[in-house]
Specification:
The complex is a heterohexamer, with 2 copies of chain A (83 residues), 2 copies of chain C (117 residues) and 2 copies of chain E (116 residues).
Chain A (H helix, E strand, L loop, with lengths): L1 E5 L4 H9 L4 E5 L13 E5 H7 L9 E3 L1 H10 L1 E5 L1
Parallel strand pairs in A: 1-2, 1-5, 2-3, 3-4
Chain C lengths: L2 E6 L8 H14 L3 E6 L20 H10 L3 E5 H6 L12 E4 L1 H10 L2 E4 L1
Parallel strand pairs in C: 1-2, 1-5, 2-3, 3-4
Chain E lengths: L3 E6 L8 H14 L5 E6 L14 H13 L4 E4 H6 L11 E4 L1 H10 L2 E4 L1
Parallel strand pairs in E: 1-2, 1-5, 2-3, 3-4
Classes of the chains: A alpha/beta (83), C alpha/beta (117), E alpha/beta (116).
Amino acid sequence: MALYLIGLPFAKTGLELAKRDSDAKVVLIEDGVYADGSGFGEVYAVKEDVEKRGVASRVAGAKVIDYDELVDLIVDNKVVNFL
Amino acid sequence: MALYLIGLPFAKTGLELAKRDSDAKVVLIEDGVYADGSGFGEVYAVKEDVEKRGVASRVAGAKVIDYDELVDLIVDNKVVNFL
Amino acid sequence: MANINFLLTEGPFQTEKWNTAAKIAGAALKKGHKVNFFCYLDGIYNGLSTQEFADWEKVPGDYFNELVENGAEIVCCGICVNARGQQSGKFFYEGIKVGGIPDWAAFVGGADRVVTL
Amino acid sequence: MANINFLLTEGPFQTEKWNTAAKIAGAALKKGHKVNFFCYLDGIYNGLSTQEFADWEKVPGDYFNELVENGAEIVCCGICVNARGQQSGKFFYEGIKVGGIPDWAAFVGGADRVVTL
Amino acid sequence: MEKKILFMFLRAPFGAIYYTEGLRAVVGMMSGLDEHKVTCVYAGDGAYYCLKDSDKSESAGYVKTIADISETHYYVEKESLDERGIQEGDLDGMFEVISRDDFAKLISDNDVVYDF
Amino acid sequence: MEKKILFMFLRAPFGAIYYTEGLRAVVGMMSGLDEHKVTCVYAGDGAYYCLKDSDKSESAGYVKTIADISETHYYVEKESLDERGIQEGDLDGMFEVISRDDFAKLISDNDVVYDF
């Protein structure tokens, strides 16, 4: 299982690649929470980044996670960095 | 007369604005030389940036200028910064 | 427990990478994971102990110093440190080391996970 | 002759803004124009006299020192200097000053042209 | 000499610090001897800053100081909002929506144009 | 422990320094005790580096050292080339064109994936 960390400006490239990985989990992080992470089975968005930017409604399809949960995801999956 | 200095990542915004200025002169500079500056009456591209990137054929419609010529353009026109 | 290596290539203030890095690494340390950092390029400025910014209670450097106090190992690229005029890191927090890419390669060799910021 | 003010907000090495700035400003000085710089945010790192990088004959700071020797005035934002741990610019080239946004506002007031990098 | 200065905020907050250090600069520009007149415009990814719920605590002090000095407009470009799927109802009330044509007019009306 | 490492070059050269400092890092990764195996892939604006006429003088030494250590592939993503109007004939011969699907496979085949 691979965890795609998606930020800007690499979101477009990263999400295209993640789409080709049937085991992809996607984490929208930092300015990546502005990106459209829809269409993935498992999408996460980092709470502190979502709240600071006021985009809770824009990431409605994502599970909002704190840093503790993000660490668990990092530990449990191979990390693919796009941020 | 206004001189639009166009770099990345602001090229798209800057070129859209320059299009609305009938007196616009456009200078593609730094990574801005990758942008499409076609459709403007006066388009320039900075020589050192073009050569380093090997994009002479991509900016064929632009006049390639050195820093001396760029300074003359800056002095003779109001500068609008998009880089 | 996992061993997590961070690559940090941006400096304090200019972007928020330092903040994200400190938050993830801090959470990882609390959970008992092993954490190390290689600071490359502008990332090396995060090691400075001399940052002063009245608007904030804590400066970015303080967060990295705390990570070290909590068990993280932080190594900065020496070539980057000297190129950027930081004099072999003489104003870095004591626990923040100056090394080279071989240290980074060794971190990666021992890492279960690699995160870039 | 024109008075050109540069705003430089990025540091040495990481991006090429320092190089573009030095090249344009150098050409402007040779043509007899008046040049001044306000270095803001990471731009302040360009003032350091302590940069050492064996791969290059000249380091970015050398170019800015030369600009000063050729008549440019360079002022760095003091808040940014101290926030970034550069101790009131004590390792800056002698001719590179530490000031504040009022200096920048005054530069703009007297400028015929403003270029940001 | 007093100048008319346009500050364009073009970068996404909060990945880079320009969203707040730009406003610090606006304060300084307005409070110097020359008393420059400043207008702010948000476009491109900078438009995200105009969202009602984005965190403005760090820049609130600057915005208040700016208001105390002189009436200052904060515009946001309609086309940038549309491209990002942002509705006018999503915006904080301090921002006035303008068209790209009006943005172009701001550029031509100001003496100095900063990209932040 | 020896790892398989993928270096993705995603930023436009030469605006940022990653295009060459990334290759310096590749040398270091391959020459350490663990002798990691590295593959390079260029995509997004990083694809511009693959142009035949782009200046490779700063990284030439690294590329040579890398070749001396072990055979290393430098791939460039076809879709990134197409989006930028770059023809295969415009490319330097050291780069091998691959599809986005193959790029995805590289990601899954490597242990560590860096974005440079």
